[in-house]
Amino acid sequence: MDFKILGPIEVRTSLGRPIALGRRKQRILLAALLLNPGKAIPSRRMLDWLWGERAPATAESNLYTYISALRKVLGSPSRIEAGSNGYVLHVTPGEVDVTLFEDLAAQGQRALSEGRHDVALERLTRALCLWRGESVLEELPLPAPLRCEAARLERLRATVVDASLEARLALGLHGEMLADLEALTSRDPLNERLRAQLMLALYRSGRRADALTVYQNARLTLAAEVGIDPGPDLIRMHQRILADDPALTPPPAVAARRVPAELPIGSAAFTGRAAEIARLRTVLTSASGATAISAITGAAGVGKSALAVHVAHQVAGRFPDGRLYVDLHGSTPGVAPLNSADVLARLLRSLGDDTAGPPDVDEAAARFRSLTDGRHLLLLLDNARDAAQVRPLLPASPTCRVLVTARRMLTSLEAVSHVRLGVMAEDETSTLLGRLIGEERVAAERRAARAIVRLCAGLPLAIRIAAARLIARPELSLRALADRLAVEDLRLSELQSDDQAVRACFMMSYRSLDAESSRMFRLLSLLGGAAISVAAAAALADRPEPCTADLLDHLAETQLLEACGHTRYRMHDLLRLFARERAREEDTEEDQAQAVRRARSDVWTPPAQPATYLTARG
């Protein structure tokens, strides 16, 4: 969710849809909370802000009504928490434009003081772009305490404008800033610093006479309006221009530093995942003493990449030095995973290092860390194979953030925030289907739409493929597609369109298994969709229980099985159909029948634990 108060107050959902905020006092109340995020505001103070000394007898009940209405429109009761010290609005980093503005302003002013004028201009420009009007909470009448905070922000804006002009002059951009300076001095004719900057820009543009005219006009205006002479800085600029001071010679224009913006386009139909989005945004935008890394893991087709791209676009404004993206092809059907050296060479080129990449991975990784040091960068490493592929690609600067998607848990990477993504709830997948094919089409065949969603079993990839089938064939009814999907032996064949196929995604994970694990995976499909215990799986595979537990854990790590507690496991419906297909292809009917008889027998005796197995896997 995005809260905007640098201009008219506005709240938008994570998908960019505006939220209606209701009556005027309700908007003032939200403004007060937004100007004090994370701080408790006593009810008495809120009542004073809303009504002053003329509070009606119903003021307290009205306040509670406004708070309840805000909780409802903001979509989560936990957003506004009532405590003993008052009401608190909880926001995540980057949600409020004010905090982002202040962060960028501080970064820009610090870079300016350090002489890094190109970095300063980038930060300050992005800060100013957050303003959508001339004042904070424009067109909303505010009580005096809130007007003081709004005035502070407007003064900070003026400081940022001044600093950005200084950076532009230092970079030799005097020609392109003349129009801005003339407009600013016209609005603020008593601002002597603006006059001096305009004089310098005109002089450097070869307009010496115009620069001297600006001084004469400033002298007359100051005398007429406030009865004073120009200050020492303006006088000094006038004297230096009269003397053609060589120090006023413009510096050579500095080429803008390359700022990569490589994120793929986000999905306009993205749906749900509110808790995961909030958690990822918090990690990616919070202050940290080290590089913050978030890893999204989950089964094939569960929507890891879509979530990562969606969140990356939401926080992109916090990374003015660039947003880098690489598909590592760790689980792409028909494509070999990228090696780390090639990825590093690509990342270095994206950051402006066009020299030939060093042949050694360690050397290339060191160059990448040097190039990213101190830069506010977001790196999205999509579709990673394992931790070994990712490790050399990580920057070391605390100003950088990394977002990784992978099927396997990347547990050997240190200081990683792990987000395990499961299937979507049925109402979310219903919403997704409607956004993809149109709400009218879903409304016309609502029961069939529910059947399609249920048969796709919460897998976003399956929903998207089903939607693609319906879009490609407008004459195909939802009922006809639901009937096709209802035939289990045909379902996976129906869930493929163009270059997307559920079966192909599953096959990549399956091919990574060793012989024992793949056999266990196939046999588990023979018992239907119920959760299975370690003991039942051991009987099914005719293996000792310790070996079986190890195999089941391995399948869970590769996202082909889901652990339900300590000793029970469940297989996703579509994975079960895929495993059954593989069993028909790779196991004899007799082997399958014997496995089922063992699992249903009350007299099966587990075999002894093989020593070779313990050596191989222990």
Automatic annotation (TrEMBL):
Listed InterPro entries: AfsR-DnrI-RedD_regulator, BTAD, NB-ARC, OmpR/PhoB-type_DNA-bd, P-loop_NTPase, Sig_transdc_resp-reg_C-effctor, TPR-like_helical_dom_sf, WH-like_DNA-bd_sf
BP GO terms, sorted: phosphorelay signal transduction system; regulation of DNA-templated transcription
Feature: DNA-binding region: 1-91
Ranges where the record places region Disordered: 586-618
Residues covered by the OmpR/PhoB-type domain: 1-91
SUPFAM superfamilies reported in the protein's UniProt record: C-terminal effector domain of the bipartite response regulators, P-loop containing nucleoside triphosphate hydrolases, TPR-like
GO MF annotation terms: ADP binding; DNA binding
Pfam (any one): Trans_reg_C
Family the entry assigns: Belongs to the AfsR/DnrI/RedD regulatory family.
Protein name listed in UniProt: DNA-binding transcriptional activator of the SARP family
Organism of origin: Nonomuraea jiangxiensis
